[in-house]
Amino acid sequence: MRPIIALLTDFGTRDHYVGAMRGVALGICPDATLVDITPDIQPQDVLGGALELAASFKYFPHGAVFLCVVDPGVGSARRGIAADVSGYKFVAPDNGLLTMVFKEGAPKRVVELTERRYARPTVSRTFEGRDRFAPAAAWLAKGIDLTALGRPLTSWQLLDVPDPQSDDGRLSGVVLRVDRFGNLVTNIGRRCFDQFAAGKPIEIAVAGHPVTKLVATYAEAAGSISALFGSSDHLEIAMSGGSAAERLGLSRGAPVSVRLKADATR
Predict the structure, then answer these.
(1) Where are the alpha helices (DSSP H) in the chain?
(2) Which helix (H) or strand (E) holds 68?
(3) Does residue 266 carry a pLDDT above 80?
(4) How far apart are the C-alpha atoms of 261 and 266, rounded to whole Å?
(5) What pLDDT, in 10s, does the model give residues 35-62?
(6) CB atoms within 10 A of CB 57
(7) pLDDT per position as a tens digit, 205-223
(8) pLDDT confidence of 264, banded at 50, 70, 90?
(9) What are phi and psi of 153, to 5 degrees?
(10) φ and ψ at 65, to 5 degrees?
(11) Please, is 138 exposed, middle or buried when counting C-beta atoms within 10 Å of its C-beta (0-12, 13-18, 19+)?
(12) How many domains does the chain have?
């Protein structure tokens, strides 16, 4: 199978940035298949990038290399890193972009990108994605060992991503992201929800707004604000044919609560 390099950035499609990274990668590993996860992470939204990466990487063949650049600290003292996690390899700035990947599986190895032979001869302080990260990803796709890229690390930056909390008949969570359809995706996973509810009747609210019902598909949410488990197996607040985020005026950080109905706690 041809090596795969998957790109995730906040560069958008208007400018040359993604194309330049692709060109550098192909110059080193011309056999690579280049795949975009998305170039449309909101500018400088490291958490948004971390969530999209975690929702997608596991569906790639093992051995895929992920070139991830959402980098508000470009050109600063923040490090560039490469990591080996669950049979995949990742190249990214050390700013928490790999937080959710590391939550799903402890990294086998993490190194700092210090070996200059695996970067371009001149590294721009404003475009390390092209000059440092793309070459490193391409060399990994070409087959070099991760340890060749630089010195090993035992610590790295992680984002403070809240976990849902359960207390006194209430499961409390938060909206982590809003997708392009206006669905409010929470940090409450299906397993956590099922353990809490245990098949009992529940009530759901988001920022004080009652959620009409728990449904299985978006079509069932027609005309009302409903909850369901989306493809990432996290509880979402949705509205078929419209945007729940716009209807409710909510965004990331909105509180979500799941309560056992009064008669269910007896």
Answers:
(1) 17-28, 46-56, 99-104, 128, 134-142, 190-197, 244-248
(2) strand 65-69
(3) no
(4) 9
(5) 999 999 999 999 999 999 999 999 999 9
(6) 22
(7) 999 999 989 999 999 888 7
(8) low
(9) -120, 150
(10) -110, 135
(11) buried
(12) 2
From the number of C-beta atoms within 10 Å of its C-beta (0-12, 13-18, 19+), residue 178 rates as: buried
Spatial neighbors of 249 by CB under 8 A, at least 6 apart, are none
Q: Which of 228, 25, 262, 247 lies closest to 120, judged by CA?
A: 25
Q: What is the CATH number of the domain that holds 47?
A: 3.40.50.10790
Token output for 169: 């008949």
Domain assignment of residue 157, yes or no: no
* One domain, residues 9 and 136: yes
Domain that holds residue 71: 4-149
What number is the average pLDDT over the span 220-240? Answer: 92
- DSSP 8-state code for residue 63: T
By the 8 A CB rule, do 104 and 158 touch? Answer: no
Select from 82, 115, 149 the last residue of a domain.
Answer: 149
- 125 and 172 inside one domain: no
| Residue 257 confidence (pLDDT) above 60 | yes
Are 192 and 63 found together in one domain?
no
Is 132 in the same domain as 222? no
